[in-house]
Design goal:
Chain lengths: 293, 220
């Protein structure tokens, strides 16, 4: 992690040519580069932020050295990569995890290339990690170039304008939307639909008119009248249909949940009794909480 | 107004100008057929379109075929010349957005994860939101893997905006082979030399760099 980007001397590096001052500032000759002058922080920030991710940076490094993408010297590239990341840290840039991941990946790749791996006959060809990297770089480059070409396409707003005469908004709704379907297609579909309806039985779902809350109140009133004690089966009003039975059951469950009634079973498999707790018998009919239906 | 005096080519032009958005041939057949009071065949419409195209040669206006149909547009060289009318401020799009859009356009349908895999960096939610707000991309389904990620695809509006008639009209992807300078065998030894002599980054020479050669030291 020594050296400097693009040969620009880093801070503190002296130039060994004392006879030629670098610059004259206010009559004073400068023989060395002043600290921190040659890498304007903002410029570096811009440079690093201009990369679209770790692949972009890696590709940049490879291109910059005129390297053959099929023959990336991994160690060298990794070192430069680390150098850039070091700069990012110096600049206290937010270091995205993707960049660190890429370094780890490169280091791993290098390590794997250095260490011979035992030949496992059960495995086929050993996976060539460098080939995988090359492929990722190439795929990214294809997309990068595709994006550039996409950007170069003549597009609305920037390159061409859609021509139109302005039709006032107020009359627009009178303009009929031309149907996009041919009439005969439409008729054919309609005929098929009609044909199908002959085989169709209609089911109708009617909204339940029974209210659980109403039923809760009825049950409580009923229980209070019969001295707060009643056999479960007798709670259901005479002549009730299936729906009412279900609603009554739901109402009872809700009453038990709210501890407004108790369920009692004296013997196993014996009859169930519903009882209003003694404290609430004396009170008037309690108004049950409205269950969320 | 005399209905019979409607000249089909002029009617076509008027329809495209009034619509303000591309009209496809089916719409034009219906619209023109209704106005002329008789059915209009595709062949007939084709002739009128050709006639209109001829009429627009050497004009500032041009007829353009896009995915949504036909539209009339001010040609690009005239758009530039007209910049004095008002200060045109076409939206500019970042590389991140264009690359994301390119991946969706060329690889659709793709998930966000696949886009990130290709770019090697996470996709900002704002990028996808802008693309969706512009109506250029949409979720067309979900991949049946854990999390059921949405599958993105481009829309007709995207094609219209970029003046394309369909996905096949996209600029062809460059082949991978075109990106790689073919390096003959004998060149490989000299390839690493310039870097060793003049490391551009000012890095110390990596001694005995084994990667510069051709050999992949994979055992097997």
């Amino acid at each position: 992690m020594t050296g400097s980007p693009a040969g620009i001397p880093m801070e503190g590096e002296a130039i060994h040519q004392p006879e030629l001052p670098l610059a004259t500032v206010n009559g004073e000759a400068w023989l060395t580069y002043p600290d921190g002058l040659y890498i304007p922080p903002d410029a570096l920030r811009l440079l690093l932020e201009s990369f679209e991710g770790p692949l972009d940076l890696l590709w940049h490094l490879i291109r910059r050295q005129n390297l053959d993408v099929l023959n990336i010297p991994v160690a060298q590239v990794t070192e430069q990569y680390l150098h850039y990341i070091g700069m990012m840290q110096q600049m206290q840039l937010e270091l995205a995890g993707e960049y660190l991941y890429m370094v780890a990946w490169l280091a791993n790749l290098k390590a794997r290339m250095l260490i011979p791996r035992p030949v496992d006959p059960t495995e086929g060809e050993p996976e060539d990690a460098r080939a995988a990297l090359v492929q990722r770089l190439q795929e990214y480059e294809v997309i990068r170039r595709a994006a550039e070409r996409l950007d170069a396409l003549p597009r609305l707003e920037r390159d061409v304008w859609q021509a139109h005469v302005s039709v006032p908004e107020s009359v627009r709704h009178f303009l009929p939307e031309p149907p996009t379907v041919a009439l005969e297609d439409w008729l054919r579909q309609m005929a098929r639909l009609l044909d199908r309806t002959r085989w169709r039985i209609r089911h109708r779902v009617v909204k339940d008119t029974l209210s659980v809350r109403e039923c809760m109140v009825t049950l409580l009133e009923h229980l209070s009248r019969s001295s707060g004690y009643q056999r479960f089966e007798k709670l259901l009003p005479r002549g009730s249909d299936r729906t009412r039975a279900v609603v009554s059951f739901l109402a009872l469950l809700e009453l038990v949940r709210q501890s407004l009634v108790n369920l009692i079973q004296a013997t196993p498999y014996g009859p169930l009794y519903v009882q209003v707790p003694p404290s609430s018998v004396e009170e008037a009919t309690p108004v049950p909480e409205i269950p969320r239906e | 107004m005399n209905e019979l005096s409607l000249e089909p080519t002029a009617l076509l032009e008027a329809a495209l100008l009034a619509a303000g958005h591309p009209l496809d041939e089916m719409q034009l057949q219906t619209l023109l057929g209704g106005a002329l009071g008789r059915p209009v065949s595709a062949a007939e419409l084709g002739q009128w379109i050709e006639a209109l195209e001829r009429a627009y040669e050497n004009r500032g206006l041009g007829l353009k075929r896009v995915a949504g149909g036909l539209r009339l547009e001010i040609r690009s060289s005239f758009v530039q010349a007209l910049s004095a009318l008002w200060e045109p401020k076409p939206p500019r799009y970042s590389r991140a957005l264009l690359e994301t859009l390119a991946i969706i356009a060329y690889r659709q349908p793709v998930t966000r994860g696949e886009i990130e895999e290709l770019r090697g960096i996470s996709v900002a939610s704002s990028t996808l939101r802008i693309l969706e707000e512009r109506n250029w991309i949409q979720v067309v389904g979900h991949r049946e893997v854990p999390g059921r990620p949405g599958l993105y695809a481009t829309t007709r509006e995207f094609l219209d905006y970029f003046g394309l008639t369909g996905l096949s009209d996209l600029p062809p992807l460059e082949k991978l082979a075109d990106l790689i300078e073919p390096t003959p065998e004998f060149d490989l030894s000299t390839l690493s030399d310039p870097m060793v002599q003049a490391p551009l980054m000012g890095l110390p020479d990596p001694e005995g760099e084994p990667d510069a050669g051709t050999e992949h030291p994979t055992v097997g």
